[in-house]
Amino acid sequence: MECTMDSKRKQTEEKHLISKMIHLYCCNKHAQKHKSLCDECRNLLNYAYDRIDNCPVIKTKSFCSSCAHNCYNNERRIQIKRVMRFSGKRMLFHNPIVTIKHLIKTLEYKIKKR
Ligand SMILES: [Zn+2]
């Protein structure tokens, strides 16, 4: 039970983060008005949500960015990497608390894996 609760929380956090990153990317790269994504980015976000909902390793992993289990298809992986590369740095300024929390979790995960 505890495990399920934790997975749910992780899924929610992961969705929250990916949504922020894609919004930031779209806003800067595709010059979209606030809060609305272009079709391409909306599709990518839906795809990412779907991956998170169906993640087979959600209980053990931290976040998709630090996961060895590649569940994205090639095309989507390239897209999401581009978004993460762009938004990763900028997230520190826009959402420092969320980003630092994420960094800590990623580090914890990497340390545990050793
Ligand atoms: Zn876009």
Topology (SSEs and partners):
Layout: H1 2-29, H2 39-53, H3 74-94, H4 96-113
Helix pairs in contact: 1-2, 1-3, 3-4
The chain binds zinc ion (ZN).
Structural features, described:
The protein is an all-alpha fold and 114 residues long. It has one domain. Helix content is 72%, strand content 0%. The protein has four helices and no strands. It has helices at 2-29, 39-53, 74-94, 96-113. α1 (2-29) packs antiparallel against α2 (39-53), α1 (2-29) packs across α3 and α3 packs across α4 (96-113). The radius of gyration is 14 Å and the shape is globular. The mean pLDDT is 80. Residues 26, 30, 32, 37-38, 40-41 line the site of zinc ion.
**What's the alpha carbon Rg, rounded to whole Å?**
14 Å
The kinds of small molecule bound in this structure are:
zinc ion
Element-level helix/strand string: HHHH
Fraction of residues in H or I helices: over 70%
Mean pLDDT: 80
User: First CA to last CA: what distance?
Assistant: 27 Å
